[in-house]
Design a protein that fits this description.
The protein has two domains: about 90 residues, Arc Repressor Mutant, subunit A; about 180 residues, Rossmann fold (3-Layer(aba) Sandwich). It contains eleven helices and 17 strands. A hairpin with a 3-residue loop joins strand 10 and strand 11.
């Protein structure tokens, strides 16, 4: 489980925050491991997270009360055979995956943002990377339902940057969703909306496992005639519980250069524009380790 191990290690190294934040990070990792394997044991989680048996059991109690899992003797399982279709990974897990792809996608998407416009950024790790690439775009209004994106943008301390954060209920992926978010977004008119998604397919379109997030993202979609979807190659073929929009609704899809050729053909048949972001080659001793 290399991806989960890496995320757990990053979480432990950055565990200088409050106990509440530490608990949320642990529970994100537990849910991701559960979604990947279908069941987890307390003994395995104590090793993975580097915490005590009692701490893991408390986390499982909280997640069971929230309806996220079912406790069994010695561990926990998915509820009624749930799968990745309905399990939503936490931000800590998602931010540790496909980082080079997401960074490349973010840079290409940032080049599509015009100075002097109002844009929407839905919550997600790829859109969070996009927020980090917007420092050089002048005179922007950004509307988001992500606290992390809001914090990133406000960190620029620019007078020509206005950031608007919707209200709502917080999801495991740190999106603010639900009636408050929908109400805040429903009267807005944006030049572009940049949207991250849990998955996409030819039949289901752009999807998410969270019903409230689907409704909130559909409201974002209605706020602009120009929807730009940011999705790395691993999102193809993943189908969440709820559809946000069909593929044809996207003005553009920005993905990475690992997207298979056959999938690129399908996307070009449905979306107005397909943008391929080339990853930057890792450099060791001044030499690229793979060709561009």
């Amino acid at each position: 489980m290399p991806a989960v191990d890496d995320a757990a290690r990053n979480w432990r190294q950055g565990a200088g925050g409050s106990a509440r934040l530490l608990a949320r990070g642990r529970r994100d990792l537990i849910l991701d491991e559960l979604g990947r394997r279908g069941s987890v044991r307390v003994s395995e989680l104590t090793t993975l997270l580097g915490v005590s048996d009692m701490t893991v059991r408390r986390d499982l109690d909280v997640l069971a009360l929230a309806g996220s899992l079912e406790k069994v003797h010695g561990g926990a399982t998915l509820i009624d055979g749930e799968s990745a279709r309905s399990i939503e990974p936490g931000f800590a897990i998602k931010s540790s995956k496909q980082t080079s792809e997401k960074e490349a996608i973010a840079l290409r998407a940032a080049a599509m943002v015009r100075p002097g416009t109002a844009i929407g950024l839905t919550a997600g790790t790829t859109t969070w990377h996009l927020a980090g690439a917007l420092e050089g775009v002048a005179d922007l209004i950004v509307v988001t339902n992500s606290i992390r994106i809001c914090e990133t943008l406000l960190g620029y301390e620019r007078n020509d940057l206005t950031v608007m954060l919707s209200g709502g209920v917080r999801t495991p992926s740190d999106a603010l969703v639900g009636p408050l978010a929908v109400q805040a977004l429903s009267s807005l008119h944006l030049d572009q909306v940049f949207m991250g998604v849990h998955g996409m397919s030819e039949r289901a379109g752009f999807t998410t496992p969270n019903l409230l997030e689907a409704e909130t993202n559909r409201t974002f979609r209605q706020a602009s005639e120009h929807l730009v979807v940011l999705a790395d190659h691993t999102k193809w073929g993943t189908v969440g519980l709820s559809t946000i929009a069909p593929l044809k609704d996207a003005s553009a899809v920005v993905t990475d250069d690992l997207m298979p050729t056959a999938v690129r053909t399908i996307l070009r048949e449905h979306v107005h524009e397909l943008v391929i972001a080339e990853r930057q080659p890792p450099i060791e001793g001044g030499t690229a380790t793979w060709p561009p």
